[in-house]
Amino acid sequence: MQIALLGGLVLFVWWLAGNTHENLTERGIRTGFDYLWRPARFPISESILRYDASDSFFWAYVVGLANTLWLSFLSILFATLLGLVVGLSRRSAHPLLSRFAGTYVTVLRNVPLIVQLLFWYAIATSLFPVPREALNPLPGVFLSIRGVYAPALTLGPGASMLLIVAAILLVIAIVAGFKLSAGKRLSVKAASVGLSVCLWVAVVVGLSGMLGHPVGLEAPALKGLNFRGGMVLSPEFASIITGLTIYTSAFIGEIIRGGIDAVEKGQWEGGRALGLSERHIMFRIILPQALRIIVPPMTSQYLSTVKNTTLAVAVGYPELGLVVNTVINQTGQAIESILIMLAVFLSISLSVSAFMNWYNARVALVVR
Amino acid sequence: MTDISFKIADAPQKPPKAKRKPLLKLLFGDLLSAFLTVLAVLIIVGLIPAFNWAVLDAHWVGGPAACQGGGACWTFIGAKARLILFGLYPPSEQWRATIVIVLIVAMVLVSLSPRLWNARLLLVWAVAIAAMLVLMGGGVLGLDYVPTSKWGGLPVTLLLATLSLGLAFPLAVLLALGRRGKLPVARAISIFVIELVRGLPLVGLLFVAAILLPLLLPPEWTVDKLGRTLAALTIFAAAYLAEVIRGGLQGLDDGQIEAAEALGIPYWKMIWHIVLPQAIQNVIPPLTNTAIVMIKNTSLVLIVGVFDMLSAARSASTDPAWPAPSTEAYLFVAAIYFIICFSISIYSRHLEWGVAARTHG
């Protein structure tokens, strides 16, 4: 039985390899990884790493990967925060809020992500006004058909020094806030940390003023037909980050709610018997225990979010999948490109699960 | 002998409901509640422009010329429904695609009742699917031949979903059994296939199928685009279903298999009559979840250029005669997907109650 299985497998792979070889020679495609070092000669519309068309194919992959990771990081971060809000809202006794969150989850979970992405992209590119009539929901933030414009940090001479000092001061401010309120109630703790951060802002702004404003905020301003200055999010990036965050937050909300529901009800009863408030029970007793249940499904959710970033090809944001596809179209090096993509996604999967397993082991209940 | 572990019967314990409070106190009882109330009201107020756009300012009648101004252009959906639902399918043959949709919906409705689940139903499904393919493709029985490149819209979405799930299921059972089984070679192959497929995004797998399949197969075999995407969707669904079924197998009491072995029941008979029915019953909720995921995933075939409902909607909205109504087109498609997926999740909840009632009743 075993031998037959193994033999069949070997024959099958051999047959596939033979076909591939024949097809490749017929089409005159060279194989091998030496193409990686040739110049890529195709543009990548936006990237967080510096790229231009004369860079090598290898660098193009790296740029695509960086975009994938950046997108994953941001959408996971935002989706976790939003998902926590959604999950807690669904569990809350507040009737308006829990209904609202329930509808949100039901609708978003039952519509394919790619439809949602295209929907946001359609809104960003057709319903938003031209730059001249841009929507201005927050001061300094403009929504227009050309993208989302927001104030950006500008760095003048001496900025790096100031940033380093500011970072050190921030750590000191937070630690001091915790130290000063050690053993006090949570609200006192939060208030004292908040106060020290306010103090930090004042000191940093003062320092910046003394040094002649090396770090400033530059708001986008309308000049001619478009905005100048500030930070711009392309419609592609804005729509994919919105779509991924909102879609993922519905799933994370359900995971968190499930975790809360799975905590034994005796824990609630115990808390009530001690006369604690519902809110106190939730944040001090239930949530910490729910975390143990939440971590494993959260890991798979994070992983699928990373994989979902490849849907960005639908709106044309150049993450790894789009770069790989372009490379294949340009060079015909399909097998190599796909192997690279496979290796990248497998290593991301494995490292995320390794990290989450470590974290899981840390928060796991120690029995005996 | 009734205490076979039916995992899903132990529904998660819900925390007890807090004591009922009067509505006013709930909404404005303390600072946080009041804040949340204001927040919820603000969100609802924030949604008013969207409501205006979709209903009050919307255009319900008239042609492209009527759709000037701010509101949604629902007349577009009316005008383009044919294109979105049937794609490029020849209008004169459209009745065939309609029958296919009706047939799939009818088959699904028939299969809803667990009482009808037996080998005969499988046979009926096989016949029905063959009939659908003949109807779509034609070329026999006096029907005109319609190449798969002309197939499009909702029938393609539904066919891809049912076929990929149907073909993936037996594959998934084999993979799951292989992974749980005693043969090291089979176990290694199963683990390799499952983990490889699950590690890749579906978009990547679709690229692999679209580009690599023609390279891997002999030059004289041609698999068209639809077949390649179906292959990718099937292997993807199989890997995920296999993990779900493995969960069901793990939840099965070892005593069941030992008893069957002691009675000298042959392996495949034991699997078919004893192991699978119990294992699958245990994993109905995750199975339906996977089904929903796969139905949503069919929309991804747009990326490799298969003309499903979403691509049809996208190409419909590029008609220059209409003022860029893509938002409405996507909302329409989203509504169809929502109806399908939401019904499945309601059905799954209903099935769970059934199982719980039978095991605890």
List key phrases describing it.
heterodimer, A: 368 residues, alpha+beta, four-stranded antiparallel beta sheet, two-stranded antiparallel ribbon, globular, B: 361 residues, mainly alpha, disordered N terminus, ArtM/GltK/GlnP/TcyL/YhdX-like (chain B), membrane (chain B)
Provide an overview of this structure.
Chain B: It holds the Pfam family BPD_transp_1. Chain B: Belongs to the binding-protein-dependent transport system permease family. HisMQ subfamily. Chain B: It comes from Martelella endophytica. The complex is a heterodimer of chains A (368) and B (361). Chain A has 368 residues and is α+β, with helices and mostly antiparallel strands. Chain A has helices at 2-27, 57-91, 95-109, 113-127, 159-180, 186-210, 235-262, 265-273, 278-308, 320-331, 334-363; strands at residues 135-138, 141-144, 147-150, 152-155, 215-218, 221-223, 226-228, 231-233. Chain A is globular, with a radius of gyration of 26 Å. The model of chain A has no long low-confidence stretch (mean pLDDT 81). Chain B has a domain at 152-359: MetI-like (MetI-like fold, Orthogonal Bundle), CATH 1.10.3720. Chain B is 68% helix and 0% strand. Chain B has 15 helices and no strands.
Oligomer: heterodimer
Strand content of chain A: 5-15%
Secondary-structure arrangement, i.e. CATH architecture of the domain at 152-359 in chain B: Orthogonal Bundle
Helix and strand composition category of chain B: mainly alpha
Radius of gyration of chain B: 25 Å
Average of the residue pLDDT scores of chain A: 81
CATH superfamily of the domain at 152-359 in chain B: MetI-like
Distance between the termini of chain B: 15 Å
What structural class should be given to the helix and strand makeup of chain A?
alpha+beta
Largest sheet of chain A, in brief, is: 4 strands, antiparallel
**Arithmetic mean pLDDT of chain B:** 80
Placed side by side, the strands forming the largest sheet of chain A appear as: 1-2-3-8
Helix content of chain A: 55-70%
Total strands of chain A: 8
How much of the sequence of chain B is in beta strands?
A: under 5%
Distance between the termini of chain A: 45 Å
CATH first level of the domain at 152-359 in chain B? Mainly Alpha
